[in-house]
Design goal:
The protein is built from 14 helices and 15 strands. It is of the alpha/beta class. The strands form 4 sheets. A 6-stranded mixed beta sheet has the order 4-5-13-10-11-12, with helices on both faces. The protein has a 4-stranded parallel beta sheet with strand order 8-7-6-9, with helices on both faces. It has a 3-stranded antiparallel beta sheet with strand order 2-1-3. It is globular, with a radius of gyration of 22 Å. The N terminus is likely disordered.
């Protein structure tokens, strides 16, 4: 079985009144006719039948071939690349689907699993799209790859650029990216450029820079990024024995991930690989929720468009984005599957993150919005307690370890000082904190502490 023939794939403008299309190797990021976003369109009907696809993907799980060891390239029939493409891979994907009984009880559902994309090579979901984007950069002969980032995209691009032996430049908002994420980019040899402003300012500048054809932009506005990320839907479906859950819930930042999941599930459904699509729900942080606001606005005014937030605020820095570029694609994915978009508070994010930890699963703050959102969706009656639910965790715990220690020491505060809120009002309570305790270095002191120590199991605390 071979990958999709290149003459059966193209780049297409998503604007319904435009209809422009371009060859795969035309280097552009938006439609040159109307400025609309682009997406890759494959003629999937030319592929083998659903049973053949499921069988070949299952067989590849036991293969030692480099392509098959990647959780992206294993599903290469879904990708717009030839068999001899110069693949740049770090064996990305292959991320676990965890049972999460304590988080399930916290949310009020009986069946909750966590798809942990933080188990990718650089610790975030970005790797699944970066392998395809950097591969396309090599095909186009680009000399330099660039991105704007809140940290995870930067780390991922830096690693894959190093693997491809390409120059790499990264723009980040100064003072707003965790040191752990910056450390990755520095170690992989990228040029890290700190700019005054927020992510959206960095994104504006990087798009201007990418007008030079020797420079290739790999943010999620790049449709080849989405192609790699969509394969996570196939991996998840395979892990569920092709019986997809009722709901898939994920964080929302620049909205490339929700776009990719929507595209992935739709293609699998169109191919007959799955019998139905899950409802896709997107959760944003309350202080950085332009997409959630748009979703509410469109209930009364269907023609509403996204209104950017000039100064987004959240400690979940990975989703601290006020002007997400992929909102149109993400909105299509949510509405076509009957999903919802909502926002949660900083306190809800922090507590959900601690609960996830009690299942022995760590994640960065942005990831926890998915579990916080599930709890809210159950309360609102959107998710039934008996429904099967998968929450997508997008980043590794160690991406922002400082946040974790401050929460458990009850020293976590929001940064929105411009609102004139007092320090006490900005405090995020360590509801499920587990601070370190100082004890004497004696056997008796330690045994005494262990005997008196309060259980930290979620079921022993009030979580209703």
């Amino acid at each position: 079985m071979t990958a999709v023939s290149l003459d059966l794939a193209l780049q297409r403008c998503i604007e319904s009144n435009c209809g422009a299309h371009y060859g795969l190797n035309e280097q552009l990021y938006v439609c040159s006719r109307c400025g609309g976003l682009l997406e890759i369109q494959n003629e999937l009907h030319a592929l083998a039948d659903a049973n053949a696809l499921r069988n070949v993907w299952q067989t590849r799980l036991a293969s030692l071939d480099g392509k098959d060891c990647s959780g992206v390239w294993r599903y290469r029939e879904l990708l717009p690349f030839s068999e001899d493409a110069p693949i740049v891979s770090l064996a990305e994907g292959n991320t676990p689907l965890y049972e999460a009984p304590r988080a399930a009880r916290y949310c009020g559902v009986s069946d909750l699993r966590l798809k942990h994309q933080g188990c990718n090579p650089t610790g975030s979901f970005k790797d699944t799209g970066m392998t395809t984007a950097v591969t396309q950069a090599r095909i186009l002969g680009a000399r330099t790859v660039v991105c704007a980032s809140t940290g995870n995209t930067a780390a991922s691009l830096a690693a894959y650029a190093a693997r491809a032996q390409l120059k790499c430049a990264i723009l980040v908002p100064r003072g707003q990216v965790s040191q752990a994420k910056l450390a990755q980019s520095l170690d992989y040899g990228a040029a890290v450029l700190e700019v005054d402003g927020i992510f959206d300012d960095a994104m504006r500048v990087i798009r201007e820079l990418a007008e030079d054809e020797s420079i290739y932009l790999v943010n999620s506005i790049n449709p080849f990024r989405i192609e790699g990320q969509k394969t996570v839907a196939a991996e998840l479906a395979q892990q569920c024995a092709w019986q997809v859950p009722d709901h898939v819930v994920m964080p929302g930042g620049n909205l490339g991930n929700s776009t990719a999941f929507g595209k992935g599930f739709k293609e699998l459904f169109d191919l007959g690989v799955i019998s139905r699509q899950p409802r896709l729900h997107v959760v944003q942080a309350e202080g950085a929720a332009p997409f959630a606001r748009l979703f509410v606005d469109r209930e009364s005014e269907p023609s509403s468009t996204l209104a950017p937030i000039r100064h987004p605020q959240t400690l979940a820095t990975a989703i601290k984005i006020g002007a997400p570029v992929s909102w149109q694609k993400a909105l299509r994915a949510v509405t076509e599957t009957g999903g919802r978009v909502l926002s949660v508070t900083e306190q809800e994010i922090a507590d959900a993150k601690a609960i996830i930890g009690r299942d022995g699963i760590g994640c960065e703050p942005a990831s926890a919005t998915s579990v916080a959102g599930i709890k809210r969706l159950v309360k609102d009656g959107v998710i039934n307690p008996s429904d099967s639910v998968v929450a997508v965790l997008t980043g590794h715990l160690l991406k922002d370890a400082d946040y974790v220690t401050k929460y458990h020491q009850d020293k976590l505060y929001t940064h929105d000082r411009a609102s004139n809120r007092s320090k006490e009002e900005r405090h995020i309570a360590g509801t499920f904190s587990n601070p370190p305790t100082r004890v004497k270095a004696t056997r008796d002191a330690i045994l005494q502490y262990l005997e008196s120590h309060e259980s930290h199991h979620v079921e022993d605390r009030s979580v209703d």
